[in-house]
Amino acid sequence: MLAIACLAAALASTGCLIGPDHCDPGAPFLPHWSRPLPEGLTDEPNDSVAWWTKFNDPVLSEMMVRTAQQNLTLGQAYERIAEARAQRAIARGGLFPDFFMDMSYSRIKSSNNGSPIGLTFQTPSFNYWSASLVDASWEIDVWGAVRRNLQAANADIDVAIEDHNAILVSLQGDVGANYVQARTLQHRILIAQRNVQLQRQSLQIAETKLEAGTVSKLDVYQARSNLYSTESLIPSLRQNLDIAYNRLAVLQGMPPQDLTNEVMGARQLFKIPDNIAVGLPIEIIRQRPDIRMAERQLAAQASRIGVAMADMLPRFTLNGTLGVNATSIDQWFTGDSLAYNFGPTARWNVLSFGRVWGNIEFQRARWRELVNNYQQTVLEASEEVENAMISYRFTQVRADQLYKAVEAAQGASAISEVQYEGGIIPFQTLLDAQRFQADLEDQYVAARGDTYTSLVNLYKALGGGWQEPFASGNLGADENPLGELQLDPQTMLPGPDAAGANPLAPDNPVPPMAPGEAIPPPMIIPQPMN
Question: What kind of membrane protein is this, topologically (predicted)?
């Protein structure tokens, strides 16, 4: 008996592994990026691990940490890892015998009337006590089906881990993009509020001229129309800002809420790093969780082909039982009550009417599908990075051009105001200049927001951030506090209104005009033009 068990163990340990081994399926990618890198990007090994720490923004870093700790979608992915590990424990159990113990009692009585040829029993009824101390069954893994199944289970754990990482990368990108959107909307609201104040000043000038009889009511109506049009922009911006707040809250695992006290404080967006290392295309394959997950899915499927192929071959099982049987429980502990049976069995599904071959072909087709999925994932990842770099480049160009346009528009607006007060130009010309300035300033801030969003999307496309999800950046003594929200170092902001209210507070959508209130300086101080 012991010899047979040892032989079975030897067969299981030295048996073959039927089916294909996992191999690199190959991926279509270029050794270098298809276009020259935009200014500020380098092909040095990418540094997208905990990329948000490079911005030295304590609010953003805190949100990233909270998202990694509290996001419920991420929590679901974490539990899927636990599920996969439990499935591996189940698969690993197939390598070992199953052991059972059971006990039974029966009261047996034979029928005298049912006995053949009228025979009767001297003991028409009796007790029957039975106990199996060891009831074992072990399917020997001769062809490696159990080991292939264990390989697949191990790969499934990797799939679950990479799925968790991919969700984390996506969430980090969403937090970054919504944070940029919130900051951009804050800035656009401040610009709109400042332009409202400037247009109120123009309305006062028109009303003063009307009282003096130097202009008609047309100028006043035009000034009011311009003012109300600008004021109407603020509720829409406020709506989008509150939506961004709600999204940021939910991403951090909190109920939708107003994050004014957390996100506001009138701070500017983080400074874009001077140099951003994006690495080479091959690094995407090593780093992006979705590519790593696709490769692990392929490895798991290769092992499942072997599991299916093992059904073509016979299965060998060792069965054994050691126990006691007696008509009285007192006799259990005597040698005569000992009973056992032990021996191998073989089972071969020689006629399955295509079920086995059908399953094998299904698993092979599934493997080929996953090869295409892996290669497509690599292609789409490369496309995503390339598109993110293109977007980052051209949003920068657009923002730079709009900045020049804002400078020119502010100069034209300032000259128009002086000329209108001097009676040189009609009021419509002044209104057009102010409206054009307000529109360009809003476009410029939105374009700057697009540049920041493109940068966040680039880091997201590179696939980093999952390696150090709780990194908080340089928030110690060396932290560089963010300055007041501004377009550039020379930009100035409107301060609180006459009542001292925060211009971005939800209950103060448009600052009231107080008698004698000073108009804040322009958002962008024009520079002398050559």
Answer: Lipid-anchor
**How many CA within 13 A on the CB side of residue 284?**
29
Model confidence band, residue 491 (pLDDT cutoffs 50, 70, 90): very low
**In 3D, which of 60, 66, 28 has the Cα closest to residue 469?**
66
Residue 390, in any domain of the structure: yes
Helix and strand element counts for the chain (H, E): 10, 6
Alpha carbon of residue 369 to chain centroid:
24
- Are the C-beta atoms of 200 and 513 separated by less than 8 Å? yes
Number of domain units in the chain: 1
**CA distances in angstroms from 101 to 4, 106, 136, 333, 493, listed in the order given:** 22, 17, 9, 17, 81
Residue range 62-78: mean pLDDT, rounded: 92
The CATH number linked to 201 is 1.20.1600.10
Q: Is residue 235's pLDDT more than 90?
A: yes
* 306-315, 353-362, 518-527: range with lowest mean pLDDT: 518-527
Tokens of 336: 């005569």
How far is Cα 476 from Cα 472, in angstroms, rounded to an integer? 10
- 8 Å CB contact between 172 and 465: yes
- Rounded CA gap, 355 and 352, in Å? 5
Q: How confident is the model at residue 368 (pLDDT cuts 50, 70, 90)?
A: very high
Q: Which amino acid is at 406?
A: V
470 has pLDDT over 90: no
Encode 490-524: b = buried (16+ Cβ within 10 Å), e = exposed: ebebbeebeeeebbbeeeebbbebeeeeeebebbb
Domain with 276 in it? 15-98+144-314+358-462
β-strands 41-42, 276-277: how paired? parallel
Task: Tell me which amino acid residue 27 is.
Answer: A
Residue 521 lies in a domain: no
Q: Is residue 484 part of a domain?
A: no
Highest mean pLDDT: which range of 113-122, 221-230, 485-494: 221-230
265 belongs to a structural domain: yes
pTM exceeds cut of 0.85: no
